[in-house]
Amino acid sequence: MVSKIKDLMWRHYIVYWSALYAANSNKHERVNVVECGVCDGIAIFYALSAIGKAGVIPHAFLYDTWEGIKMERLVNEEKSWKDDYSYLQVNNTKRNLEGFMDNITFIKGYIPDTFNRKDEPEQISWLHIDLNSSKPTIESLEYYFDRLLTGGVVLFDDYGSSSFITTRKLVNDWFKDKKGLLLPMPTGQAIFFKF
Fold first, then answer.
1. Which helix (H) or strand (E) holds 8?
2. Total domains, the chain
3. In this structure, what are the phi and psi dihedrals at residue 76, rounded to the nearest 5 degrees?
4. What is the DSSP string of 77-112?
5. What share of the chain is helix, strand, coil (3-state, %, to 5)?
6. Crossing angle between the packed helical segments 134-144 and 165-174, to the nearest 10 degrees
7. What SS3 class is residue 63?
8. 153 in Cβ contact with 125 (< 8 Å)
């Protein structure tokens, strides 16, 4: 248990500092951030706290099913995650994010079905992808990367572990011709800094 808490501590440290970096790289009065795969809202809580620390007003667009993962969207190595998130409820996430509710848009459903809404941002500074699934990870990148400002950040939660070999390969391939730096982290995360 202590090991798991320490692992999460470092993961959330990286969430916090990557969001702070993105907010400071794009000094606007308001910063749009996107999280694909929200779970209970703890990661976005740290990101929004960091952005507020930068003296910027954040607005978050949060995508999740809040009911589990579709089996047909998973490759073999991801199938062990199938039932891990079926307990989620959007109301629990909202309770965890109580202090930020005026600056959050919740988008419930499966990616990419939930994309192409009228209220989505044209520009974003920070994109966090934590979908435990390679196909929606790439679909999220394809949809939002061109909206990511120079100096913006993409943070991947699912990159370095043996459960996400396909995700890592697809992400590496996807970024081959993109201007920026992909930095794998010892926590299993990876950060892409857009130049």
1. helix 2-25
2. 1
3. -50, -45
4. GGGGGTTTTTT--HHHHHHHTGGGGGGEEEEES-TT
5. 45, 25, 35
6. 20
7. strand
8. yes
Main-chain dihedrals φ then ψ at residue 194, nearest 5 degrees:
-85, 125
Write phi, then psi, for 187 (nearest 5 degrees).
-80, -10
Q: What is the pLDDT of residues 59-82, one digit of tens each?
A: 999 999 998 888 888 888 888 776
Residues in the chain, overall count: 195
Q: Which residue has the tokens 């999220």?
A: 140
Which amino acid, 170? L
pLDDT of residue 178: 97
Average pLDDT of the segment spanning 17-42: 93
The predicted-structure confidence for 94-114, as pLDDT tens digits, reads as follows 999 999 999 999 999 999 999
Domain span at residue 154? Answer: 2-194
3-class secondary structure, 37: coil
Q: How far is CA 48 from CA 53, 64, 99, 115, in A?
A: 9, 17, 10, 22
Number of C-beta neighbours around residue 133 at 10 A: 24
